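CHAIN AND CONFORMATION:
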Amino acid sequence: MSFESFRSKGLVATLLIILLPIVSAVISVALVFSNVLSSSIYLSLFFSLLGYAGYVLFLSAMNGLSKHYNDPKIFRNSLYGFITTIIGAIVFIFLLEVFLFPAFDQLNTINQVNTVKDIAANPSLSTFLSFLTVVVFIWLGQFVIALFQGIFFRRAFYALAEKSGESRFRTAGLLMLIGGALTIVFVGGLVFFIGWIYAALGFSSMKTKAPQTYLLPPQQPPILVMPPRKYCPQCGTENQINAVFCSHCGNKL
């Protein structure tokens, strides 16, 4: 496949990674306002899984560009970042199903019992602390995973920027690293998202590098070395170099 096909793959992949979360967020907000909270959560997970098609296409593009530029760091770090993303998604779904959803159900059950008994009571402190512990645990786990994800993608895009000469990839890698670090304060996801936008801009404007040409220095004309000669000082006749007397006039050389 050609360089242009790898570039196009990367552009389509990054657009999928950018647009699918936006579509998911819009639909989820509409469902929340329609009082269908559980459906919005599962729909978000569905769009997240669909977004991995974009990641697979992205990996294919980075693999091709890695071979085009003969730099394995481009694909290797992209693969590590993708694996980290998969691990993060699995861990997040596991924590939702095992801890967060049961905690929601417990709080909902307590509210229903209080409603039936016509008691205006809040959940117990232990129930609230258990729920808060689950939320903090999920938050810290996602922070660690996002940080490693940012590190790997930053390395991949820095290597691609160095080989392609497209500076937007360097900006994308830096934003992803900052986004991973800022996940701890809830704005990292937005910064990471902006990093993908810069990656899309990089793919849209990158061009293959023209082959470098090297000018050879001008060649100097060869220097002719004349064999040594022996001339007679009396008559000027040329003689052999080892002659003692002139072959013409007999003068001693």
